[in-house]
Amino acid sequence: MHVAVVLDGNRRYGERHQVDGHRAGLQALVRLLEHMATRVPVDIVTLFVWSKHNWKRSVAEIRTFRRLVSDSTSQLTDLAHKHKISYRVISTNTSRLSSAEVQSFRDLATQTSSYHHLVCNLCCSYSSQEEIAQAAAKGDIATHLLVPDPVDLLIRTAEQRLSDFLLWQCAFAEIIFCDQLFPDFTPQNFDQVWAQFPNRVRRYGH
Description:
Layout: E1 2-6, H1 10-17, H2 21-39, E2 44-51, H3 59-83, E3 85-90, H4 99-111, E4 118-126, H5 128-138, E5 153-157, E6 174-178, H6 187-196
Parallel strand pairs: 1-2, 1-5, 2-4, 3-4, 5-6
Helix pairs in contact: 1-2, 2-3, 3-4
C-alpha cells in the first residue's frame, strides 16, 4: 500500500497563528509518520516536502526551510530507529540545495537503509514533470522513475490540485482532498480519510 501526501498549508498556518508554520508542519509530519508506522498497514509513504517551484518564494521563507532541514534530521533519525522507518530523499534538482543539505539527506538515508517496516520517500526540490523528462531521456519511463511504485491513495491538505507531484505514479490513485492546513492535520483526520479508501471502487479503466 502506497500513500502519498501533499503537505500544504504550512505558510498559511504560520501567518494565521503568528508562529513558524513550517516547524509546526514538521511536528504534524512526525505525528503522522508515527501513526502510520504503528497503526496503519502502509508499506510506502511519499511526502511532498518542498517543490522545485517553492524556490520562487521569499528569501525569508527559504531561509526558514533551510534551517528546518538542518534541525529536523536528528528528530527524523530517532523516529526511524524507534519504528524501523527507512528514508529515501527524492530530488529532481539538487542545484539549489547546499552541499551540507545534500549530505544531511544522504546521511539520513544511509543510517536508516536497513529498516523495512515503513519506507518514507521525502520529495524535496522535486518536480514530477522533471522526473518524467529525466526518466524518458534514459529510455523506458516506468523503469527509470525516482519513485517507481504506483500510488494507491493521494491525500492533499488545504488545496485541490496535484501541483506537479507524482503525476505518473498517480495515474490510478484514489485522491482525497482535505480542508485542513497541514499543521492542523491530525492522525484522527488521517483515519477519517483512511476509512473512505475501502469504499472506493478501483476500476483501472475497466
